[in-house]
TrEMBL record:
Family membership noted in the UniProt record: Belongs to the ATP-dependent AMP-binding enzyme family.
Name by which UniProt lists this protein: Acyl-CoA synthetase
Classification via InterPro entries: AMP-bd_C, AMP-bd_C_sf, AMP-binding_CS, AMP-dep_synth/lig_dom, ANL_N_sf
Pfam families recorded: AMP-binding (PF00501), AMP-binding_C (PF13193)
Span of domain AMP-binding enzyme C-terminal: 396-472
The AMP-dependent synthetase/ligase domain, residue ranges: 9-344
NCBIfam families for this protein: PRK07787.1
Length: 481
């Protein structure tokens, strides 16, 4: 297999590769630090990585990949029970952590290597095969204990090279972000992506509009974020012309991990003249689709399939939807070199996840426009509402609700209804808690924009929507709200 990071050997050694706050590693220094760690890891089994947003995490994962050792990123905010499950399931031989990091007892029992981000060593030859495990990333566990998705080296290379094609991503790009490093978005795309291209990444540590503006004004060309981050940017723009100018300078603004509300798309475009592009992926599949850098950044869509990715929409009986009419809803199924190989220790779950012809069942519901653009309408389990004989995606109703000036946040779910099968429930965080918009007003607002059968029948008000670390709304938690 060709190296995952050719720039470590062939790139300019004095060029910046990683910057976390005031700490920077050049390509030469990263090659030395990761090479030194790889030498210590050679011949070990898989390793856990205490994935704090620090330079050491990037060095740890790079060193493990150079050694051909699978890395298991651990969320430092995980609860004890979840950590115990992940460690028991993945059985790492040791844990890599930044010096001085305090580890909980469940992790502290493992042998530990403190990562020296400024060590010096020789760069090893990468001998691992395409199909060898690179990362084991645990899913969010919304339907049971988290499952470890085994991502092979070929999946990392395939998805990053496909994104390079779609985004015209080169070694001249400088990426800024503040994403956590225990997920695909922040780690694979946000750290390994720039390293594979031979470019640079600047990690903010903590997201702030001021930090984003500073880095974009200082030469960063790309911004990766989740919808919560872009929402905060949109909120800050009216009073901050400097921020608008900084965002306008970016070559590419990319949002992922959840759908970016159309309202925030439009606010950012109006203030900056730049449109955010969206892409679609999962832990198990890495990236499947994206709006291309040379394509139309159409709000509410995630673009077209990436090179090498086969994508189809299927009915509940498995029949493929071949009429791309922008209305017919089907489940997304994908096939390609970007896919994981298995759920660790879960052959039953692995078998159930794939069709007989090798397509992965994503559980995401979407429609496809006549020109091939994909628009996701929600998760099959939580966002597809069957009401009055219609299949309704929660996402488009949420976007409509967010266009109401009295709505700050919105989520839509379905609940049993004796007449309709399911009725549409809107969960609203009002812009003014003292004067929330009424249920009838919101229903009429949606009906005017979409169709009468898509209006919410019930409206419930909250102070905030429950979200996970990546900003996704945890809809299963709404039932307990």
């Amino acid at each position: 297999m060709s190296p995952l990071f050719p720039a470590l050997a062939d790139g300019p050694p004095d060029m910046a590769a990683l910057r976390f706050g005031p700490r920077t590693l050049t390509y030469g220094a990263l090659a030395g630090a990761a090479g030194a760690l790889a030498a210590r890891l050679e011949g070990t089994g898989r390793v856990a990585v205490w994935a704090t947003p620090e330079l050491e995490t990037a060095v740890a994962v790079t060193g493990a990949l150079l050694a051909g050792v699978a890395a298991v990123p651990l969320n430092p905010k995980s609860g004890g029970k979840e950590l115990e499950h992940i460690l028991t399931d993945s059985a790492p031989t040791l844990v890599l952590a930044a010096p001085g990091a305090e580890l909980p007892s469940s992790v502290g029992d493992l042998p530990r290597i403190d990562v020296d981000a400024f060590a010096t060593g020789a760069l090893p030859e990468e001998r691992a095969a395409d199909g060898d495990p690179a990362l084991i990333v645990y899913t969010s566990g919304t339907t049971g204990p988290p499952k470890g998705a085994v991502l092979p080296r070929r999946a990392l290379a395939a998805t990053l090279d496909a994104l390079a094609d779609a985004w015209q991503w080169t070694g001249g790009d400088v990426l800024v972000h503040a994403l956590p490093l225990f997920h695909v978005h922040g780690l694979v795309l946000g750290v390994l992506g720039p390293l594979r291209r031979g470019g640079a990444v600047r990690h903010l540590g903590r997201f702030t509009p001021e930090g984003v503006a500073r880095e974009l004004n200082d030469g960063a060309t790309m911004l990766f974020g989740v919808p919560t981050m872009y929402h905060r940017l949109a909120e800050a723009l009216p009073g901050d012309p400097g921020l608008a100018g900084a965002l306008a300078r970016a070559r590419l603004l990319v949002s992922g991990s959840a759908a970016l509300p159309v309202h925030d798309h439009e606010r950012i475009a109006a203030a900056t003249g730049r449109r955010v592009i969206e892409r679609y992926g999962m832990t198990e599949t890495l990236m499947n689709t994206s709006v291309r850098a040379d394509g139309e950044a159409r709000a509410g869509t995630v673009g077209v399939p990436l090179p090498g990715v086969e994508l189809r929409l299927v009915e509940e009986d498995g029949t493929e939807l071949t009429d791309w009419d922008g209305e017919s809803v089907g489940e997304i199924q994908v096939r390609g070199p970007n896919l994981f190989t298995e759920y660790l220790n879960r052959p039953d779950a692995t078998a159930a996840a794939f069709t007989a012809d090798g397509f992965f069942r994503t559980g995401d519901m979407a429609v496809r426009e006549p020109d091939g653009y994909v628009r996701i309408v929600g998760r099959k389990a939580t966002d597809l509402i069957k009401s009055g004989g219609y299949k309704i995606g929660a996402g488009e109703i949420e976007n409509a609700l967010l266009e109401h000036p009295g709505v700050r946040e919105a989520a839509v779910t379905g609940e049993p209804d004796a007449d309709l099968g399911e009725r549409i429930v809107a969960w609203i965080v009002p812009a003014d808690p003292k004067s929330p918009p009424g249920a009838e007003e919101l229903a009429d607002h949606v009906a005017r924009r979409l169709a009468p059968h898509k209006r919410p029948r019930v409206v419930r008000y909250l102070d905030a929507l429950p979200r996970n670390d990546m900003g996704k709304i945890m809809k299963r938690a709404l039932a307990d709200a």
